[in-house]
Structure formats: structure tokens, C-alpha cells
């Protein structure tokens, strides 16, 4: 008999398995219907020996000292600040929109003050910001909205920004300086040896048993457990009794090309002319040196694995119905992106799982302050790490 059955070996499941096994001495069985651990953050060495992310680029960034300190128990880090360019009107321009984006697009020579005044001129007055379109129009006006946002959002979400909740485009800032970092979080690092290695370290404990290629419906008949942690889709758990919660999916097309570099930054967005939304080149993220390079094209679709909960009021209302059902099951806990039907970044899922662990173990959640030595200990000085020293382990 296991103390806990944990469904899903992504961030939510792995954090809880690790804490319950190590800190509370619980016997844990963690399962995943996929053939690997790591959930959507899974990475692997492809047939050319290049480290790639199976489910698209995962860039770690957080403002939480607690989350960073926790994950630092299982990995060293590589400093990495994410940069994105957008391919528009035959130019590659920084996104989020900044001073260089506007100067580059229109051939202006604005300084920051002039750009602020320009935005004031072109932005559209919108009294109540409700949709993703409202957010952008009210900040940068129609031309920049149509050039950088409208087509991208239509492809990504399969609907117009005017139909989507404001949270989607609110995540992306507009800048009047030349800061071209995609994120501004305090901690911006990639796991030095990749995400999968980090997950292996988390799950390496005698109290943790792992079963891959195993779905919950299959195993629940055969395995005894006292408590259940479910990180799969909450509507699936309840047999879709109120209907399906909608998700947007992606098809990933991975390629390796016979050249050392494909593009100048990790991600290039294609807002307008192609069917794909973006191309990622992994060596920028991992720092790996290799004569070839691997890239991924992303094609949004309604078919495939559930990736993005669709942020619309009717979906939030449907989720609330399921949430009420979850509250009737005292020994079943729903956590993670699918379990709580919410777009969360990795660090938010780690924080959510740590909070659930505190609740399960009767501890009060505290926001620990990060000892500066933790950063020093876990970020090797440049040159210490040679990614190519890791043997290539092609995916089976
Ligand atoms: C394309 C893409 C890019 C992203 N980029 C970033 C990024 O750059 N930075 C960032 O912070 N976050 C990013 N994210 C978000 C990140 O992937 C999530 O925050 C994180 O993976 C969520 O972890 P999780 O454990 O909740 O879910 P998941 O990683 O989805 O893990 C859930 C696991 O449960 C398993 N499962 C589901 N149902 C069952 C069942 N019935 N039986 C058995 N197993 C089951 C699934 O197979 C899956 O492995 C991105 C997401 C996507 C899709």
C-alpha cells in the first residue's frame, strides 16, 4: 500500500513526490502515461547528440528565492537571459516592443522620451480594458498591434485577440528603453545539465517508485494507495461530467540542420506570413557546442496534448464547477497546470506544489529568503562546464 499515488511526473508531481518521500518519509508511487519523466519540460539528446526540448522551449525564470533555492538542490545552473526577435516586413526586430523595435520598423531615431511621447500620440483611448486587443491598442496603437500581435495571437489561440481575456497580452511589457530581455525576473538560469537530469535527481529516493507508460485509469484498479495527487486534466478525472475544458495544443516539428547556427537568438517569432508561430534554436539555451544545430517549428492546433487552458470567462466558469467537485474529495488533491486549469509557468507550479506539501504535512508556508551563497554555490563560473562532455543519449 502506497501512502501516495501521484499522477503525472512533471514539475507538480515530481516536487510533491520528492518532498513527501524525503521530508515526510512517505511511500510514493509516481506514474506518467508518457514514456518519460519531466512532463512538458522533458529534454533529451537527439540522434545528433544535441540537447533539445521535446515540447518546445522551456526557459526558467523566477522572482521567488524559495523556488530557486529549492530547485538548486537538484541542479547546477547556467546563466541565460532570453531574447526573442520577430520577423516582420523583412526585418528581425526585438520583442517585447522596445526603442529599437520602433526605430527599426519605421526608420526613426527616437530616444526614450520621444518614444514615450510617440506612444502617447498613437495609443487608442479605451475606457475599460477587457480583451487582449484592448491591452495592446491602449499601449502602442493599431499599426504595432497589427504588425506584432494580431496575427501571432490568431495563430496561437485560433481566435482574434478581441475574443481573448486581457491576461494573454498583459504578460508582455512595452518598453521605451533598449532592454531586449524577454523576462526581467531576478533569477534567470537554465538547468546546467538539462531538465530531465534535474528531475532524475529529484526522484532518486528509495521511497519513490516510478511507473512510466502508465495511465491512471489503468493502474487505479491494481494499486493500493491512501491518498491521491492528480496533476492530469481535472475534467478527465471526473469523466468530463460537465463537458470538456478546452485546451490549445501545438504540433512540434523538430529538425537538425548541417550548420553551426541557424538564427541569432533562441527564438524568432513569425507573427504574420507563416503557418508556424515561432522557431527555436536550442544551442542558445543550453550553451552546447556542436557542428550542427537543432531547431523546432511550432504549429498551433486544436488537436493533440492539452497545453494551454483557453482563458475565456465561460471556461473559467466551467472549471469552477469541477473545482467544487474536487472539494468533495478530502484525500484527492489537484495541482499543476492541468489539475487547476490555469496557465502557470514552471516556477509557479513549483511554488503551488510546495504550498500543497506544506498543507499536507501540516507546516505553515513561509517565504524563505535566499542565502546569496546558494546562488554562488549553484552557478559555476564560466568555463567549468562543457556540455559536450555529456554523452549523447538518443531518445528511445
Ligand atoms: C510550449 C510550451 C512552452 C512553455 N515554456 C515555458 C517557459 O519557457 N517557461 C516556463 O516557466 N514555463 C513554460 N511552460 C509551462 C510549463 O510547461 C508548465 O508550467 C509545467 O510543465 C507544468 O507542470 P505540471 O506538472 O503542472 O504539468 P505537466 O508538465 O503537463 O505534467 C503533467 C504530466 O501528467 C501526465 N498525465 C496527465 N494525465 C495523466 C493520466 N491520466 N495518467 C498518467 N499521467 C498523466 C502527463 O503525461 C504529464 O507528463 C511552457 C509550456 C508549453 C506547453
Please give a handful of descriptors for the protein shown.
alpha/beta; Rossmann fold; seven-stranded mixed sheet; five-stranded parallel sheet; 17 strands; globular; disordered C terminus; binds flavin-adenine dinucleotide
How is the secondary structure organized here?
Elements: E1 2-7, H1 11-24, E2 28-31, E3 43-45, E4 51-53, E5 61-62, H2 65-71, E6 77-79, E7 84-88, E8 91-95, H3 99-106, H4 112-122, H5 132-157, H6 167-170, E9 187-191, H7 195-203, E10 208-211, H8 216-219, E11 225-230, H9 234-237, E12 247-257, E13 267-269, E14 278-281, H10 283-286, E15 293-301, E16 308-309, H11 313-326, E17 332-334, H12 336-339, H13 346-360, H14 372-378
Parallel strand pairs: 1-2, 1-11, 2-10, 7-13, 11-17
Antiparallel strand pairs: 3-4, 5-9, 6-9, 7-8, 12-15, 12-16, 13-14, 14-15
Helix pairs in contact: 1-13
Bound molecules: flavin-adenine dinucleotide.
Flavin-adenine dinucleotide (FAD) is lined by residues 7-13, 31-34, 39-41, 55-59, 215-216, 231-232, 236, 250, 307, 336-338, 344-347, 349.
Amino acid at each position: 500500500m502506497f501512502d501516495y499515488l501521484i499522477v503525472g511526473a512533471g514539475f507538480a508531481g515530481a516536487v510533491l513526490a520528492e518532498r513527501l518521500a524525503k521530508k515526510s518519509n512517505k511511500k510514493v508511487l509516481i506514474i506518467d502515461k508518457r514514456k518519460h519523466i519531466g512532463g512538458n519540460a522533458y529534454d533529451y539528446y537527439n540522434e545528433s547528440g544535441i540537447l533539445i526540448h521535446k515540447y518546445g522551449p522551456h526557459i526558467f525564470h523566477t522572482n521567488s528565492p524559495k523556488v530557486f533555492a529549492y530547485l538548486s538542490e537538484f541542479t547546477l545552473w547556467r546563466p541565460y537571459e532570453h531574447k526573442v526577435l520577430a520577423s516582420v516586413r523583412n526585418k528581425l526586430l526585438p520583442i517585447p516592443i522596445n526603442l529599437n523595435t520602433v526605430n527599426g520598423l519605421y526608420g526613426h531615431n527616437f530616444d526614450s522620451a520621444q518614444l514615450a511621447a510617440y506612444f502617447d500620440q498613437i495609443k487608442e483611448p479605451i475606457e475599460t480594458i477587457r480583451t487582449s486587443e484592448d491591452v495592446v491598442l491602449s499601449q502602442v496603437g493599431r499599426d504595432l498591434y497589427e504588425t506584432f500581435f494580431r496575427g501571432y495571437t490568431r495563430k496561437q489561440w485560433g481566435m482574434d485577440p478581441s475574443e481573448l481575456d486581457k491576461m494573454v497580452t498583459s504578460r508582455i511589457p512595452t518598453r521605451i528603453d533598449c532592454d531586449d530581455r524577454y523576462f526581467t525576473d531576478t533569477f534567470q538560469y537554465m538547468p546546467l545539465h538539462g531538465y530531465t537530469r534535474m528531475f532524475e535527481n529529484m526522484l532518486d529516493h528509495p521511497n519513490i517508485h516510478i511507473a512510466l507508460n502508465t495511465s491512471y485509469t489503468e493502474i487505479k484498479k491494481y494499486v493500493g494507495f491512501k491518498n491521491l495527487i492528480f496533476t492530469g486534466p481535472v475534467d478527465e478525472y471526473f469523466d468530463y461530467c460537465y463537458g470538456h475544458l478546452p485546451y490549445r495544443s501545438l504540433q512540434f516539428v523538430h529538425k537538425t540542420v548541417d550548420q553551426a547556427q541557424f538564427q541569432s537568438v533562441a527564438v524568432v517569432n513569425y507573427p504574420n506570413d507563416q503557418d508556424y508561430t515561432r522557431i527555436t534554436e536550442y544551442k542558445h539555451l543550453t550553451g552546447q557546442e556542436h557542428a550542427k544545430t537543432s531547431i523546432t517549428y511550432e504549429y498551433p492546433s486544436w488537436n493533440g496534448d492539452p497545453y494551454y487552458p483557453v482563458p475565456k470567462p465561460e471556461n473559467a466558469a466551467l472549471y469552477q464547477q469541477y473545482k467544487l467537485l474536487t472539494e468533495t474529495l478530502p484525500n484527492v488533491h489537484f495541482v499543476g497546470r492541468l489539475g487547476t486549469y490555469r496557465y502557470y509557468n514552471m516556477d509557479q507550479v513549483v511554488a503551488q506544489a510546495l504550498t500543497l506539501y506544506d498543507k499536507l504535512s501540516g507546516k505553515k508556508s513561509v517565504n524563505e529568503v535566499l542565502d546569496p551563497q546558494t546562488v554562488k554555490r549553484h552557478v559555476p563560473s564560466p568555463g567549468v562546464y562543457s556540455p559536450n562532455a555529456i554523452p549523447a543519449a538518443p531518445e528511445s
